[in-house]
């Protein structure tokens, strides 16, 4: 038989390759190591994993010769894998892309097979068979393998998440799962394992929980747990007396950037099911809040959409559901709207008191919190850290510890947070003025009898170019005036 073909015939050979090899096996005796399953290699794997069936090739007289490799699975008429050098490999149905011969430099035998993405259906018997072309058969090539596939539990039947029932009625909660080994089913009520009573029983290998003549104390959350050596899963069903609406999908806290869209869920069920949903913020119906009314939508399923969100939308939102029976049920969530730091107000003129401490304010709003503020004076970057008499306060404002005439000028501030900045303030004219002076001061001490009156006089004169000063009185100890 010719072992090398012209490339022009290669594609034609591909079509008949599988049939050719099967024909070879019908004519050539092939034996397997251990003609019974007793000597087979047993392998255990978990669904989704990969395994290697290690199969050696022992050449006649230890001289390498051409051979065909075939892997079979018991119960299938067609091999799952056929390999011959320089020919396309054959993969059986369901094994495409999952079976491959190991590389020649691997520590496994030359006839070893790599099976990936293991499925539960892969469990069973596999045989490694080797044919030496134009040679007498050997009784050493070939091995039986048994693959045990373990799988964590998976539910095939579960009860509804909410079960509405009337007092005195009966109910069956059915919970079935598959997996390898076969999962065990156990039941809990409100985190306590269910104990059989005259009205509560567990049947059919634990898959059914039956409650008869339901009482109010039977109401609660029933959880079935399916478990085996590979893991466990759970499912909870809430048994309720038919009546008021129940929130099934409560809203959750969310953080959005200004300009994005936010949606809060508020799915509810009730018996009867005529559920109405009301959304509010700080006690006010969202549709009645002027800043929200054009941007908020309440959907049929009860969810609320705000599109787009603005900085002022941050707050606690309350979802309230009712079907007219009993008290409404509510759930709330917080909306955190982040935006770049921004200047909210720019005063045209700010005054600093000569030779005293003074502050030039930068009115800022930021979420997340302010990180830092840059300042300019007369269009040049101001470096407060290099000047001993200027400090940037935590709120971004400039503190002048002792004002002098050099501090007069035109200032701008630019705030930054983790989201960046929305820009600089307008120019602020900072003027240095002398502070007002007292023209009349109260005496250091006044001495009066109880029930007598006392007058304390105080007056002040404004500095040039400033307004008439305002005079305020207060007790030195902070107590309110009589």
TrEMBL record:
Key words of the record: Immunoglobulin domain
Chain positions covered by the region annotation Disordered: 461-482
Domain named Ig-like: residues: 48-130, 153-240, 244-336, 340-431, 436-482
One GO MF term attached to the UniProt entry: cell-cell adhesion mediator activity
Highest taxon of source: Eukaryota
Alphabetical list of Gene3D superfamilies matching this protein: Immunoglobulins (2.60.40.10)
Record bears the keyword Ribonucleoprotein: no
Pfam families noted in UniProt: I-set, Ig_3, V-set
Stored SMART domains: IG, IGc2
InterPro entries registered for this protein in UniProt: Ig-like_dom, Ig-like_dom_sf, Ig-like_fold, Ig_I-set, Ig_sub, Ig_sub2, Ig_V-set
Gene Ontology, cellular component aspect: axon; plasma membrane
Protein name stated in the entry: Ig-like domain-containing protein
Originating organism: Aphis gossypii
